[in-house]
Amino acid sequence: MVDGSVDIIDTITVEGDVRLILCDGAKLTTKNICVNEDNTFSVYGQSGNTGSLTSRISHNTAPGIGGGRFKNGGNINLYGGIVYAQRGKEGAGIGGNASCGHGGTVRIYGGTVTAVGGTENGAGIGGGGWDQSYTKGPYGGNGADVVVRGGIVTATGGGSAPSIGAGGSSNNHGSFSTGENGSAVIFASALGD
Question: Which domain of life is it from (predicted)?
């Protein structure tokens, strides 16, 4: 549970099933949140949904929230609060690292979510862009399996990447759905297909 203002200058690494509750008015700012495969990170807001999580990173390959380098992303569930995730260069805003690995699973049920991909072809939600040091496959990470059922979601891809989908030149955009009876408001310029 986060109450008040908290700044964490290092990477937060999620192990197991981690649930973060943002108290109304709380502000958590961090470098990035690493959620690798087989781990789950869930964010909840209180009744006013005014608590915020900001994850903004300048490291080349990492996403704001998502998988570590050369790792598949884990499970990310956003139920409430104000979540802002931005990559500086190659990673996705929420989802995958640059160059390899699947963006994982992203489920958005509520809150206000903004995801901005890296300037070198990182998706807003999905796969990371091009990592020059990676030479073993297509340049760009696979998209995530994304379900947006509620909330207000703004996703912006960097470079030529879609708002939601794969990064770089990868052809695997993952999947996208609003689920049954979805009520989300989604702002996205392009979805990978």
Answer: Bacteria
